């Protein structure tokens, strides 16, 4: 399994950063460059415990769908999401929000495995880990900009 952690301080309260991280519209905005859209959203338009969502996007020129579930919601400290159907053999994203003197320390830990066994492991080591790290960093830039501006 490939894994990485990103940390970022955002000038907003943990409750504000937590809420923004669960906002489906902000997620779509942050992934606009990849043409990501929400095919099937959470009931009521807001993520809550057990919410599922299906995204459509294009990466490496290949269109795909990814369905995930949101779970372990502990406002305003933490929540997780994981793929339940999609291109990865496994994908788990833990979101953590801790108080910081300058606002909130947001920590994303991503654990994933590409399909195709040993070939997927090589792909993860050679470029997928870095690609995913940049993708989450871009998402976090949009989230921070929305809260700090």
From TrEMBL:
InterPro entries: Polyketide_cyclase/dehydratase, START-like_dom_sf
Descriptive protein name: SRPBCC family protein
Organism of provenance: Microbacterium profundi
């Amino acid at each position: 399994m490939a894994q990485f952690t990103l940390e970022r301080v955002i000038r907003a309260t943990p409750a504000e950063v937590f809420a923004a991280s669960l906002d489906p519209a902000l997620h779509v905005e942050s992934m606009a460059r990849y043409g990501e859209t929400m095919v099937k959203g959470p009931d009521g338009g807001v993520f809550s415990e057990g919410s599922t969502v299906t995204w459509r996007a294009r990466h490496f020129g290949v269109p795909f769908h990814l369905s995930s579930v949101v779970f372990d919601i502990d406002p305003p400290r933490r929540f997780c999401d994981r793929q339940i159907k999609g291109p990865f053999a496994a994908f788990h994203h833990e979101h953590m929000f801790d108080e910081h003197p300058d606002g909130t320390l947001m920590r994303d830990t991503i654990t994933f495995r590409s399909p195709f066994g040993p070939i997927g492991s090589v792909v993860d080591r050679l470029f997928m880990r870095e690609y995913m790290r940049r993708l989450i960093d871009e998402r976090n830039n949009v989230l921070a900009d929305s809260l700090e501006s």
